[in-house]
Amino acid sequence: MSTGKKIWKFISSMRFAIALLVVLAIACSVGSLVTQGQTYAWYAQRYSERTAALIVALHLDDAFHSWWFLVINAFLCVNLLLCNVLRLPQLVRRSQAEADPQRALQVEGTVSAEGIADPAPAFARLRMPKPVSTATTDGKPALFSSKNRIGLWGAWVCHLGILLLILGFGLGQMTQHQYTVYGVPGQSRPIGDTELVLNIDDFRIGLREDDTVEQYTADITVYNVSGSGESSRSATISVNHPATLYSMKFYQNSTGWAAKAKVTENGEPLQEEIVCAGEHFAIQDKPDLVVALSAFYPDYVMVPGVGPSTATGQLNNPAYLYTVYYQGEFLGMNALMEGEELTIDEYTVTFSDPQSYTLIQIKEDHFTWLALVGGLVTMLGLFLAFYLQPTKVWAIQAEGGTWTVFGQNRKGGALFREQFAKATQDPTGRSASDASD
Predict the structure, then answer these.
(1) 82 vs 181, which has greater pLDDT?
(2) Which of 255, 276, 311 is the last residue of a domain?
(3) Quick one: pLDDT band at residue 157, thresholds 50, 70, 90?
(4) 290 and 349: one domain?
(5) Distance between CA 302 and CA 368 in Å, rounded?
């Protein structure tokens, strides 16, 4: 065998497929353990400089889009495709053989019963299709029936489904676009570089009787402001209940606290805006002066040895932790209670009206349908493989007029033997006997 044929044989082998699945499982585990999409500085702070360099060098910070992950999936797709292509002619011949009476009449089957006066009831009890009349090579009358030949295609269809599933997932990961939009009811935010604008109509937090969170729900409207004319679509989304608008999937992801920030200059109103915890804003008249709402505590307490914290999730004693920067330099940090003011030169900053904001994750994946088709085809293959068992039953008439009934079921095993024995019992109590293979 030439080197090329050996390589193709290895690539299409089950051994190579199992090795790829093991490597793929390890890659997915690593990708799940390493936080994705962070910067080198973040990994260096979390782990170490050496580990951070290794993560970035191996593209573990974006494992599911890395070249090596795509190569693994590509080889797996080639393996599955070759397996299916190479097995197809053999599978067609085997399927045809299952329906060929002459091939069946030349073997003894896996089980048999002799001395049957009328084989018709046995065919009926085994729920076989109406048998066809034929004859052996030496002219003896015979009957033949087969069913569930399509079950032979179970593994082949299952491989095809897995191939489509991998292709759908891989192509989706390569072409997928993800966006994150957050805000409070009434705010409108652009969705990345698209021509869509998301308006948050309402946001609700459902609580149980013990005041724990049961569900987050947001009412949204998406506007298409493209040059072809404005249109809009609305939906209600909640955790595990996304909505599809303009070929994008909108997920209710998480929530946090926001507050209204007011700035006055020498007592005169200057600016007012909604700031989410973790965001910052620049003073309009002095852009080098930046104020950040670093954190919000709905029920503020100072825990010795820990620092600022919240006793409950209720708005009992709200406090706003702010940080001030000037020209990128840290100036100070402190907590403001409700009604207190932060004064910086001629500017006064106050925070008020704490409210929950919603964070909505948006995904655009043009190959979700392919992964869905792959999953359905895989389920069909499993159904064919496990529930439709190819079965053949045939009977040959002896010289004395009685019949010998044979049966073959490659997957049924002991269960088929038991069913065959019951089906071939006659009034005298005679039952099936095992035939030699």
Answers:
(1) 181
(2) 255
(3) very high
(4) yes
(5) 49
